[in-house]
Design a protein that fits this description.
single chain, mainly alpha, Potassium Channel Kv1.1, Chain A, three-stranded mixed β-sheet
Length: 287
């Protein structure tokens, strides 16, 4: 005889939670994470919030069931289901909020994604790194811009923060591009980038030499403003790292020594504008 299942609770929230926990009415199964935890759900609830689930279950290219989800941890998937079902839920940590953001982005659950953005919204320097990474990774310009605003207003502290040494290359490039940093001495920017590249090499177990450091910097190197440096500091602190080629070093050095009366052939950053202009005029916002 088939066991009877009934819902408990008197409020919508309580009965929704019971509905999720008992699996009553479920008509699809997910196998989640490396530990392969099984979850059952009601398709109608899922497609109500996600066009991705709609295509999965009723589109022309519908997937075979049960559906395997190896890229999301079971506790994060459970939190996503609790949101979909209308149960009580909360962010366990910023790290879990980032994982939940990934799930919301993957399944295009807009309302959940917005809740993640609100939770990760930066208010201090320590908040900006996660906000910037998530904003860039999931194309959330409002989150990215909020982080950039704090970076712009606290440039010196940002440059001295040890956390900046662990951000992605894309985020480093984003910070260097335009006028996000208000730093009077470009050499300070270069030294931070050099430390960042050293950190990447150490974390990856790579040999520390000029070409490797350059490879780690990638596109970020093209946004360091070598042309506003002094010739002596360029020789002492940049050329000695081996990050630039001999041709690039000589090209830039000739430009600096001749005070701009030299035609550059280098493809590196050609900007001659300091990140904090000396003319007293208000700077344009970062791009």
């Amino acid at each position: 005889m088939e066991q009877q299942v009934s819902l408990s609770g008197s409020t919508i929230n309580e009965r929704s939670q019971s509905l999720l926990e008992t699996g009553l009415g479920s008509n699809c199964i997910f196998i989640v994470g490396e530990s392969k935890v099984y979850f059952s759900a009601i398709k109608g609830f899922l497609i109500r919030v996600s066009p991705v689930f709609e295509r999965m279950f009723y589109g022309e290219l519908r997937e075979t069931e049960p559906t395997e989800v190896p890229d999301i941890e079971p506790d994060v998937f459970n939190t996503m289901l609790r949101f979909i079902y209308g149960c009580d839920w909360s962010f366990k940590s910023n790290a879990k909020a980032v994982e939940l953001c990934y799930a919301a982005h993957k399944y295009m659950i807009h309302d959940l994604l917005q809740r993640c953005v609100e939770h990760l919204w930066p208010t201090t320097i320590s908040d900006v790194w996660t906000a910037l990474e998530v904003g860039n990774l999931y194309s959330l310009p409002e989150l990215r811009d909020a982080a950039m605003k704090i970076i712009n207003e606290n440039s010196s502290a940002v440059l001295e923060s040890s956390d900046i040494l662990h951000i992605s290359q894309d985020c480093l490039t984003d910070i260097l591009r335009g006028n996000a940093l208000e730093i009077p001495n470009e050499m300070d920017v270069f030294k931070m980038c050099y430390k960042w590249a050293l950190t990447q090499c150490e974390q990856k177990g790579l040999a520390v030499d000029g070409p490797t450091l350059r490879n780690e910097l990638g596109e970020a190197l093209n946004h360091i403003r070598f042309l506003v440096m002094g010739s002596k500091e360029f020789v002492d602190d940049v050329i000695t790292t081996g990050i630039l080629t001999t041709e690039e070093s000589l090209d830039i050095l000739c430009f600096l020594v001749m005070e701009g009366r030299y035609c550059l052939s280098s493809k590196l950053c050609t900007s001659r504008e300091k990140r904090i202009p000396d003319d007293g005029f208000e700077r344009l916002p970062y791009l």
